[in-house]
């Protein structure tokens, strides 16, 4: 009996070695073997597959994939006051890879955890910022690191105001979250992108969208 395959892992999952075996969308890909390397909280797999190159030759390749589930993020903005609402929290992977203190400025975000993207992003915004999100504007859906991570992130934007604040925010303590809510003038947020003080990809993308096509676009 193997955890995550024929015996439930810590999250009650089985059959984790079936991922990708039933894919038929690309006739140039034939999955041969899927091995589960780890199924602690997220799932690390190595998959062996045959791939037909553009010149017609078939090759056998092996790739590791890290499956943490899909997620959603939202840029909260106040057009009248010219501000955006971000969060600051500690990110160990960034800290261990050269970030000075691991404290990243980000848009509110989280995993879907079985919810639809809109419900998930409302939940995360409420938990992290304390604001009840009203109407959501879908922005785009992005594979954030398609070379190794399966996650697809759903991007949204939504207005906020003093009236939408229903709690203090700060995250869920039981989940180890310790989140600071940070309100910034939109122009200042763009300056922090240019200076490198905002280094989180989803946040940079939403701020640039806001400047080019979103609530703070010229004209």
Structure commentary:
The chain has 219 residues and is of the alpha+beta class. It contains four helices and ten strands; from the N terminus they run βββββαββαβββαα. The protein has helices spanning 92-96, 117-129, 186-195, 201-212, and strands at residues 29-38, 43-52, 58-67, 71-78, 83-90, 103-106, 108-111, 137-143, 152-159, 180-185. The strands form two sheets. Strands 4, 5, 6, 7, 8, 9 and 10 form a seven-stranded mixed beta sheet that branches. A three-stranded antiparallel beta sheet has the order 1-2-3, with no helix packed on it. A hairpin with a 5-residue loop joins β2 (43-52) and β3 (58-67). The longest helix has 13 residues, at 117-129. The mean pLDDT is 95.
Helix percent band: 10-25%
Look at the helices and sheets and give the structural class.
alpha+beta
* Molecular shape: globular
Distance between the termini: 63 Å
Largest sheet: 7 strands, mixed
Q: Mind telling me the C-alpha Rg? A: 20 Å
Low-pLDDT residue intervals, each spanning 5 or more residues: none
Instruction: Note the run of SSEs as H and E.
Output: EEEEEHEEHEEEHH
Average pLDDT across residues? 95
Number of strands: 10
> Tally the helices: what do you get?
4
Question: In short, what is this structure?
Answer:
The protein is of the alpha+beta class and 219 residues long. The chain has helices at residues 92-96, 117-129, 186-195, 201-212; strands at 29-38, 43-52, 58-67, 71-78, 83-90, 103-106, 108-111, 137-143, 152-159, 180-185. Strands 4, 5, 6, 7, 8, 9 and 10 form a seven-stranded mixed sheet that branches.
